Amino acid sequence: MRTIGLMSGTSLDGVDAAWVETDGRTIGRFGRRLTLPYSDDMRRALRELLDLAPTLDPGNALLKTCEARLTDHHAKAVRALGEEADLIGFHGQTILHQPAAGQPGAGRTWQIGDASSLAEATGIPVAFDFRSADVAAGGQGAPLVPVVHAAMATALEKPLAIINLGGVGNITWIGRDQQLIAFDTGPANGPLDDWLFRKTGQAFDLDGRLALSGRVDPFVLKHLSNHPFLRIAPPKSLDRQDFHDAIRSAGLEALSAADGAATLVGFVVHCVAATLPHLPEAPQQWLVTGGGRRNVAIMQALAKELPAPVLSVDDVGWDGDALEAQAFGVLAARVKLGLPLTFPGTTGVPKPLTGGRIVAATSSTAAVARL
Ligand SMILES: Nc1ncnc2c1ncn2[C@@H]1O[C@H](COP(=O)(O)OP(=O)(O)OP(=O)(O)O)[C@@H](O)[C@H]1O
Ligand SMILES: CC(=O)N[C@H]1[C@@H]2OC[C@@H](O2)[C@@H](O)[C@@H]1O[C@H](C)C(=O)O
């Protein structure tokens, strides 16, 4: 199947799009990929939505405008890619994530984006709503990408850890017998980006330069490191805003911009190291993906903290900028083929679970024609 995966992650930096040929279990070929960044205005509107999301009415005007703009931005990304495809995997933008572990029907996860409009705009069927069946079954609804990591890592030595450092961090651990364990590690670039924006007006700490010029404050780091999330056994997942209050009250505000950035980097890395007690066996190597792998301060601190070599996924031939988008291309194929998306070891569902829905351009065209 020729698919286009589309991901708009928690860092709100833009839409990643990637072309993949796949049968859902294996990858035939990766094709073109691109990122279509959001304007500052769009990023501001999305961030506002995240703050409002817990009490947001589905008919809210800002929500509707944002959703339409977001969908349009995804359609532009597909057009810019300029590739033919049989299916699009459209993650949408998570604005709220509140799973209720082990309680079927009690949690919720909310990704905005209008799949029918995207199918209409592109003429390609769209797989979407990847997380809600899992949450409805009492799973965490995240992470979803681990099954794709496992498909890509067949030739690599195990046990292996893949760390994704986006707005939030997550880990995929693959054992010698292909056992899969995955969960969110803690905040990653989200709080760091917010700090940089507040203190310097920059969207993020380019290459970690500011953090490298600062010093970790041991008291603030200790305070943050006591967060109970880190001790909870997996499965576990996070909303981008989950650590917001903890970070606000940790004493960060008294620090300089550079020391605050260094301390937040220290915390991101501590969260990764804190996964070790939750893993059946220490990884032989750690592969880092997501934008955080470009932050030199993060990569240096990871290499110091972790007991095995730390590499970027690009070092084993993967594309760390495209990986999540590629994964949603593969997951789209899995939706179409009725293959499971989530597993007891990834989201805590009792047994492997299918998910997602597909909408085709023709159905919505027919619906429009009937009006
Ligand atoms: N050159 C760089 N130097 C430092 N940090 C960078 C660099 N490039 C990207 N980043 C960081 O990576 C972030 C984007 O990462 P990524 O695209 O993996 O996140 P995402 O996919 O939106 O999030 P998630 O995986 O949580 O859904 C940026 O917000 C920024 O903080
Ligand atoms: C609810 C949600 O959108 N979660 C994201 C977020 O960003 C990183 C981490 O938190 C991960 O659990 C997940 O994304 C990746 C793509 C996943 O599901 O594998």
Keywords:
Nucleotidyltransferase, domain 5, 12 strands, binds adenosine-5'-triphosphate, 371 residues, 2 domains, 21% strand, single chain, seven-stranded mixed beta sheet, alpha/beta, 36% helix
What does this entry show, briefly?
With 371 residues, the protein is an alpha/beta fold. It has helices spanning 40-52, 61-81, 115-122, 132-136, 146-152, 189-200, 209-212, 218-225, 244-248, 257-273, 296-305, 323-337, 361-370; strands spanning 2-8, 14-22, 27-37, 87-98, 108-112, 126-128, 160-165, 168-174, 180-187, 285-289, 310-312, 357-359.
Helix content: 25-40%
Listed once per kind, the bound small molecules are: adenosine-5'-triphosphate, ligand AH0
H and E order: EEEHHEEHEHHEEEHHHHHEHEHEH
What's the CATH H-level homologous superfamily of the largest domain? ATPase, nucleotide binding domain
Number of helices: 13
Within the CATH hierarchy, at the fold level, what is the topology of the largest domain?
Nucleotidyltransferase, domain 5
Number of domains: 2
Runs with pLDDT <50, length 5+? 364-371
Mean pLDDT: 95
Structural class: alpha/beta
Distance between the termini: 33 Å
Question: How many strands?
Answer: 12
CATH class of the largest domain: Alpha Beta
**Reported CATH architecture of the largest domain:** 2-Layer Sandwich
Gyration radius, in Å = 20 Å
Strand content: 15-25%
Shape: globular
- Major sheet, described briefly? 7 strands, mixed
